[in-house]
Amino acid sequence: MDSFPEIIFGEPRGGGLLDGGLDVVSLGKGGEIILGFGGSSILDGAGPDFIVFENAFYVGGDPTKPFKELGEVSASEDGETFVPFPCAKAAYPFDGCSGWRAVVANPETGVSSFDPEVAGGDPFDLADIGLSSARLLRIRDISSYGSAPNAGFDLDAVAIINAAVP
Fold first, then answer.
1. Considering its fold, how many domains does the chain have in total?
2. How far is CA 81 from the centre of its chain?
3. Which of 5, 8, 47, 90 has the smallest C-beta neighbourhood within 10 Å, fewest atoms?
């Protein structure tokens, strides 16, 4: 893909509650990606520490009927050991998974990706997996939807809410 990796850096380009964004990279069925943040780390702070943005949306605007492509999110401080967030992939609500909440954040609409109250996407708290910080995230497709070239989890962006910048 010509626009990789730039397409996943920067602000998400969410399509809102009724439409998935197209500024994404598809991981493929069972695919995964490991993301680093330069010299920065994610810190465990109050509330969510980061948000993962896929291109989910709500069928008919109903949040209980997400069009989803689920991903398992894991975090690592050392790059060797990745600790997964428990992901309730069997039925709604898909807590701990990524790829099921609509993405509202978009610089063109003025909705910040750093505000979990309005951004949409899937928020994560490192405290939920017992980590105080993470330098890397791994996102693995666990969906069974789609076909090439856009099968599986479609990563738009990740926003770090609690960051340690060198």
1. 1
2. 20
3. 90
DSSP-derived secondary structure letter, 18? S
Phi, psi of 7 (to 5 degrees): -60, -25
Domain range enclosing 68 = 6-164
Query: Is position 34 within any domain?
Result: yes
Q: What is the pTM of this model?
A: 0.93
Instruction: Please report whether residue 1 resides in a domain.
Output: no
Per-residue pLDDT in tens (0 to 9) along the chain, 166 residues: 566 666 677 789 888 999 988 888 888 888 999 999 888 999 999 999 999 999 999 999 999 999 999 999 999 999 999 999 999 999 999 999 999 999 999 999 999 999 999 999 999 999 999 999 999 999 999 987 666 666 789 999 999 999 997 7
Q: Is 124 helix (H, G, I), strand (E, B) or coil?
A: strand
Here the tokens at position 15 are 């399509």
CATH of the domain at 124: 2.60.120
Residue 64 lies in a domain: yes
- CA gap 100, 154 in Å, rounded: 11
Residues 14, 99, 140, 28: is their CA dihedral positive or negative? Answer: negative
Specify the amino acid at residue 93. Answer: P
